[in-house]
Amino acid sequence: MGAAAFVWPLISQMNPDASTIAAGAPIEVDLAPIAVGQDIKVFWRGKPIYIMNRTKKQIDEARAVPVASLPDPQTDQSRVKEGHDNWLVVIGICTHLGCVPLAHEGNYDGFFCPCHGSQYDSSGRIRSGPAPSNLPVPPYKFVSDTKVQIG
């Protein structure tokens, strides 16, 4: 018993502290309050995450773009979860110099980075400006029709 009392603090100190665990822990976001055409910004691992409830028009426009014409070719379908096409989840950090773009701005009803003019469409794909690639999609999954888990 004395040995266990002695060894336990030594083993316990090797575990990561609570702030480290919280920094990488998945977060759950309730989607119910987000109306069609709106977006919210949450933070995961210190990064802004945009969750956009896209309109049918935004989805149709994103899917009508010839993928070969994009600087970083990706289909809209590959950037969303099947059956949840209206929900776009992206890391809101411009891939040029790390600025935070504005949602529902620019020429493509997606994201606009006011720092250097990069424009992303409603699928988070780079369409014009100096950014070299699309807004990244974080690891996420739907835990219900109205709740998403990021991380």
Features:
alpha+beta, 3 helices, globular, Rieske Iron-sulfur Protein, 151 residues, 28% strand, four-stranded antiparallel β-sheet, 18% helix, three-stranded antiparallel β-sheet
Shape designation: globular
The level-1 CATH class: Mainly Beta
> Helix segment count?
3
If you consult CATH, what is the topology? Rieske Iron-sulfur Protein
Low-confidence stretches: none
Which CATH architecture?
A: 3-layer Sandwich
Global structural class:
alpha+beta
> What string, H for helix and E for strand, traces the elements in order?
HHEEEHEEEEEEE
Secondary-structure blueprint:
Layout: H1 2-12, H2 18-24, E1 27-30, E2 39-44, E3 47-53, H3 56-64, E4 87-91, E5 102-105, E6 110-112, E7 119-120, E8 126-128, E9 140-144, E10 147-150
Describe this structure in words.
The chain is an alpha+beta fold. The chain has one domain: Rieske Iron-sulfur Protein. The chain contains 3 helices and 10 strands; from the N terminus they run ααβββαβββββββ. The protein has helices spanning about 1-10, 20-25, 55-65, and strands at about 25-30, 40-45, 45-55, 85-90, 100-105, 110, 120, 125-130, 140-145, 145-150. The longest helix has 11 residues, at about 1-10. The chain starts with a helix and ends with a strand. The model has no long low-confidence stretch (mean pLDDT about 90).
